[in-house]
Task: inverse folding
């Protein structure tokens, strides 16, 4: 169903974004990767995906905190691979601190990267999706788009914002072939979370393995991490015909976290 379509996945050089890019490529979509990292490693990743799944894979190093760079990336994807049919707003960062000492520049960065980038990317892809009357917009929110945790003022605010933006875009596209939904993962063991585990181990003077189990168990009744592959499979389903009437939903994939 998505064979030959063009997917742009922000923040796909690592973690969840890479899992989603792999899953879409495996279904035959051509993929534009985005994110930061070592140029040689990213090129090897790009070539590896293209070879394994026999699809076109591009890379754009846009810093998505810059709206002009997002618009340029969407133009580059169109020129290289064809207009964007599937947009996955995935890139995100974290910063933890109590609200009274939260550095204002980290607040601005989290809001720009985790929330405003979704708005700018949606604005950039919408004309072409409307012209084709087909599109899939998938915003990677979080369990923190639905519930809060202490020390995460900017992240929780941004992710709740993503859930709201998702609903508005879904309503505005409700009579078209474009759908917009959010995926709300619980803990996924990626570099973003490994940093929080390492910080916790240091803070509590406990082994990293114990910090890892404590972190996942205190939120997820399953006591197990969600995997990037599982999130990729959900994204593929949202791109299918069967998901055509899933609109404005926030789909939890969180080991039971938000069922409590
Ligand atoms: P990650 O740190 O492994 O990957 C983040 C990706 O975003 C990387 O490719 C990085 O290069 C890219 N990136 C960061 N800043 C960027 C910028 N300014 N411009 C372009 N690219 C940028 O993180 P992850 O855990 O895979 O998280 C991906 C998304 O999933 C984020 O939105 C995160 O909030 C969300 N999420 C993660 C978890 C989790 O437990 N890991 C849970 C829920 C939601």
Result:
């Amino acid at each position: 169903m998505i064979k030959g379509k063009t997917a742009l996945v922000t923040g796909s050089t690592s973690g969840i974004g890479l899992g989603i890019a792999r899953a879409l490529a495996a279904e035959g979509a051509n993929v534009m990767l985005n994110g930061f990292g070592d140029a040689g490693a990213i090129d090897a990743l790009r070539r590896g995906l293209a070879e394994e799944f026999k699809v076109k894979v591009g890379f754009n190093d846009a810093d998505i905190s810059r709206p002009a760079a997002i618009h340029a990336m969407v133009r580059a994807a169109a020129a290289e691979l064809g207009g964007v049919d599937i947009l996955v707003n995935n890139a995100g960062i974290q910063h933890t601190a109590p609200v009274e000492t939260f550095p204002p520049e980290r607040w601005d960065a989290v809001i720009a990267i985790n929330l405003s980038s979704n708005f700018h990317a949606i604005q950039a892809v919408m004309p072409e999706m409307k012209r084709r009357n087909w599109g899939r917009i998938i915003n990677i929110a979080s369990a923190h788009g639905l519930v809060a945790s202490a020390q995460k003022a900017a992240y929780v605010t941004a992710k709740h914002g993503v859930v709201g933006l998702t609903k508005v875009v879904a309503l505005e596209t409700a009579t078209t072939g474009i759908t917009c939904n959010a995926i709300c993962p619980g803990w996924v063991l990626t570099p973003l979370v490994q940093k929080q585990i390492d910080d916790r181990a240091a803070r509590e003077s406990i082994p990293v393995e114990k910090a890892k189990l404590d972190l996942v168990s205190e939120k997820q009744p399953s006591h197990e991490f969600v995997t990037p592959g599982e999130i990729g499979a959900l994204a593929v389903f949202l791109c299918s015909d069967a998901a055509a009437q899933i609109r404005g939903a926030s789909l939890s994939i969180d080991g039971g976290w938000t069922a409590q």
Notes: The chain has two domains: 6-186+226-259, 189-225. Residues 10-17, 34-37, 63-65, 90-93, 113-114, 140, 142, 185, 187-188, 190-193 surround nicotinamide-adenine-dinucleotide (CB under 6 Å).
